[in-house]
Write a structure and sequence with these properties.
The protein has 296 residues and is mainly alpha-helical. It folds into 3 domains: 19-88, Seminal Fluid Protein  PDC-109 (Domain B); 97-154 and 228-285, Lysozyme (Orthogonal Bundle), CATH 1.10.530; 159-218, Endochitinase, domain 2. 33% of the residues lie in helices and 4% in strands. The protein has a 3-stranded antiparallel beta sheet with strand order 1-2-3, with no helix packed on it. The protein starts with 49 loop residues before the first strand and ends in an 11-residue tail after the last helix.
Length: 296
């Protein structure tokens, strides 16, 4: 993992791990979503409370909380099936399992499609924003960069072990409690550095600073860290990869946000081309076009 993660900010909001949709108890009927009270930010909720969010869907409190956002703080809230509500917390992913397997024919068994689907609820705007073409392009762009970072979803951890001790920034007030060499690249976008484990963990409601191995042992958490970076971090770029795709800046800007300091502006055209080639393959699999501005 390069020093590209140095630019990631550590500001984060309390969110949590994904959870399955809760269904009414056997023999009970789901009430209409409109019958539940509207969620109110900052209002205290107790475990079992059911609210109707601004998207019209219902959510049930899995843990007591002081009014956290149901679609962000997924450790505290779970989607709740009701008339008119969705029973798919991903909102319907534009990549089918067959297409995923076609994209990654030699993938490591750790990188499961189910793990990816379980992670989607952490960032519900991912690949669900805009037209069908935009949704497919974003999914393809994310997976193309993931493909490059992991050698086709083969590598779960960074292969150059000599780099491992370099990813500890002792100037951070929390230090490196898991050890000097504990924060090497892991997961689909190879999360690295202690401050990124801290920021991603805070955002996902998981203590990754003290337990970085969760990223290499839990497929859903691994995918969530990649989605965290994609949706919230601009890295060496000027926008998040998510915003680059939904605002038509083009695939090239996702490269800049992920590793632009080492690859863009002619620094490593072969690496850029590798990402672009994967993106063009993946949009073809998804039955759409690549769009403009492929290079950085």
């Amino acid at each position: 993992m390069s020093k590209r993660r140095l630019s990631a900010l550590m500001a984060a909001i309390v969110v949590g791990t994904a959870a399955p949709v809760l269904l009414p108890a056997a023999g009970a009927s789901a009430a209409a979503c409109s019958s539940y009270p509207s969620w109110t930010a900052g209002k205290a909720y107790r475990t079992g409370d059911i609210v109707r969010y601004t998207d019209g869907k219902a959510y049930i409190a899995e843990h007591d909380n002081p009014g956290y956002d149901p679609v962000i703080s997924t450790w505290y809230w779970e989607p709740y099936a009701c008339d008119g509500g969705s029973t798919d917390p991903s909102g319907g992913f534009v990549v089918s399992e067959a297409q995923f397997n076609q994209m990654f024919p030699s993938r490591n068994s750790f990188y499961t499609y189910s793990g990816l689907k379980a992670a989607l609820s952490a960032y519900p705007g991912f690949a669900t924003t805009g037209s069908d073409t935009v949704k497919k392009r974003e999914a393809a762009a994310f997976l193309a960069n993931v493909n490059h970072e992991t050698g086709g979803l083969v590598h779960v951890v960074e292969q150059n072990t000599a780099n491992y001790p370099h990813y500890c920034d002792w100037s951070q007030p929390y230090g490196c409690p898991a050890g000097q060499a504990a924060y090497y690249g892991r997961g689909p976008i190879q999360l690295s550095w202690n401050f990124n484990y801290k920021a991603a963990g805070d955002a996902l409601g998981i203590d990754l600073l003290n337990n970085p191995n969760l990223v290499q042992n839990n497929a859903s958490i691994a995918w969530k860290t990649a989605l965290w970076y994609w949706n919230t971090q601009s890295g060496p770029g000027t926008m998040t990869p998510h915003n680059a795709m939904v605002n038509s800046a083009g695939f090239g800007q996702t490269i800049r946000s992920i590793n632009g300091s080492l690859e863009c502006d002619g620094k490593n055209p072969a690496q850029v081309q590798s990402r672009v080639d994967a993106y063009q393959r993946f949009v073809q699999i998804l039955g759409t076009s690549a769009g403009a501005n492929l290079y950085c």
